[in-house]
Specification:
The chain is α/β, with parallel strands linked by helices and 340 residues long. 40% of the residues lie in helices and 16% in strands. It has one domain: Aldolase class I (TIM Barrel). Strands 3-4-7-8-9-10-12-13 form an eight-stranded parallel beta barrel, surrounded by four helices. A three-stranded antiparallel beta sheet has the order 5-6-11, with no helix packed on it. The chain has a two-stranded antiparallel ribbon with strand order 1-2.
Length: 340
C-alpha cells in the first residue's frame, strides 16, 4: 500500500515538473524522492533475475546511470525505488559549479534532453560523507572525473585522488573520460590518454587493494560518437589494460535525425541515442568476446529498448533521461519484462 501511494504521488508530480525549468525540476524531483523515501518498503526480487557481473551480484540488470544523483544526496531514496545499482557522480576532487545556466534543455516530442552541465558537483568529500551514511544495500557505483581547470596532462592526478577517497565506500568505479561537456576530456579515450589515466588508476588500485583487502572493479565509460575503427582500437586497448568492464555509452554530440532540436551545445540523451548506443554495444561485444562485462546505457525508454540493449550484448543496463520523463513506472515496466 505504501509503495503504491508513493508511486502514485511520483506519477502525479511528473506533469507539473515538466512545466518548469528542467534543472529546477530535477532538483525538486530529488527533494521529493527524499521525502517519499519513508513510504518505500525494502524491495526483494526473485533470484532468477539476479546477475553476476565483474565479481558483483546484482538483484537484476536495471540500474540508474551517473548524473542523476551527482552528490550521493538521494542514494537511499533512489535505491528504494528498486534499482539494482545506482551510479553516483560524476564527482571531482574539488567542488565546482559546472557550466553557466541554462545548461539543460528538454526535447519532449523526441523523449530527449540536451545537457552541458560540466560536472557540477559538491566535491568528492561531500559524496563520501553522504554515501557513508547510506543504508542502501544494492550496488554502489561511483563515476569519477577531473576538475575543469586541471590541465589534461595532469588529469590522472584528479582521477587517482577520487579513487583513493571513494575506495572503501564504492562497489565499482566508472572512469568518465567521455563527457562532451568538459573541454578536451574525450581525448583521453585515445590510447595515450587511456594509458596515462588507467595506468595510474590500476597502479593505485594495487596499493589500495593490499591496504584494504578489497579489489574495486574499474570500468571505463565511452562515447557513442566513435567510428567503427575507433571502437576496434578502444576494445584492443581495454583488453590490453585489463580493465574490468566498459559502460556504453555517454551522451552524444550528434543531432542526426533529430527534428526541431534546439541550437544548444551539449550532450544528447534519451530515445534518439538508443540506436547509436546499441550499435556501439554490439560492436564492442563482437570485439571483446563473450566474457567481457558491458553496461548498456543510452535511450532505453521502454521494456522493448531494454531487451534490445541486452540482446546487443549488454550484461547490465542503466536509465537516466527516460526515468526523468516517466518516473517509477519505467522501472516497473522493465523489471516486469525481465521476469521469467
Amino acid at each position: 500500500m505504501k509503495r503504491r501511494a508513493a508511486s502514485l504521488l511520483a506519477r502525479a508530480s511528473l506533469p507539473i515538473l515538466t512545466r518548469v525549468d528542467p534543472e529546477l525540476a530535477h532538483d525538486i524531483g530529488l527533494a521529493g524522492l527524499r521525502w517519499l523515501r519513508r513510504l518505500l518498503p525494502v524491495q526483494s526480487y526473485p533470484v532468477e533475475l539476479s546477475v553476476r557481473c565483474f565479481g558483483l551480484s546484482f538483484a537484476h540488470s536495471l540500474g540508474l546511470a551517473a548524473g542523476f544523483d551527482k552528490n550521493g544526496d538521494c542514494l537511499d531514496a533512489l535505491g528504494a525505488l528498486g534499482f539494482s545499482h545506482v551510479e553516483l557522480g560524476t564527482v571531482t576532487p574539488r567542488p565546482q559549479p559546472g557550466n553557466p545556466r541554462p545548461r539543460m534543455f528538454r526535447i519532449p516530442e523526441a523523449g530527449a534532453l540536451i545537457n552541458r552541465m560540466g560536472f557540477n558537483n559538491k566535491g568528492v568529500d561531500h559524496l563520501v560523507a553522504q554515501v557513508s551514511r547510506s543504508r542502501y544495500r544494492g550496488i554502489r557505483g561511483i563515476s569519477i572525473g577531473k576538475n575543469f581547470d586541471t590541465p589534461l596532462e595532469n588529469a590522472q592526478d584528479d582521477y587517482v585522488t577520487c579513487l583513493r577517497k571513494v575506495y572503501t565506500i564504492a562497489d565499482y568505479i566508472a572512469v568518465n573520460i567521455s563527457s562532451p561537456n568538459t573541454a578536451r576530456l574525450r581525448e583521453l579515450q585515445a590510447r595515450e590518454g587511456l594509458d596515462r589515466i588507467l595506468g595510474a588508476l590500476l597502479e593505485e588500485r594495487r596499493v589500495l587493494q593490499e591496504r584494504h583487502g578489497k579489489r574495486l572493479p574499474l570500468l571505463v565509460k565511452v562515447a557513442p560518437d566513435l567510428t567503427p575503427e575507433q571502437i576496434s582500437a578502444l576494445a584492443r586497448d581495454l583488453r590490453a589494460l585489463e580493465v574490468d568492464g566498459v559502460i556504453a555509452t555517454n551522451t552524444s554530440i550528434s543531432r542526426e535525425g533529430l527534428v526541431n532540436a534546439p541550437a544548444e551545445a551539449g550532450g544528447l540523451s534519451g530515445a534518439p541515442l538508443h540506436a547509436l548506443s546499441v550499435a556501439v554495444i554490439s560492436q564492442l561485444r563482437t570485439e571483446l568476446g563473450t566474457g567481457f562485462p558491458i553496461v548498456g546505457v543510452g535511450g532505453i525508454v521502454s521494456a522493448e529498448h531494454a531487451r534490445a540493449t541486452l540482446h546487443a550484448g549488454a550484461n547490465l543496463i542503466q536509465v537516466y533521461t527516460s526515468f526523468a520523463y516517466r518516473g517509477p513506472v519505467l522501472l516497473e515496466e522493465i523489471i516486469d519484462a525481465l521476469s521469467p
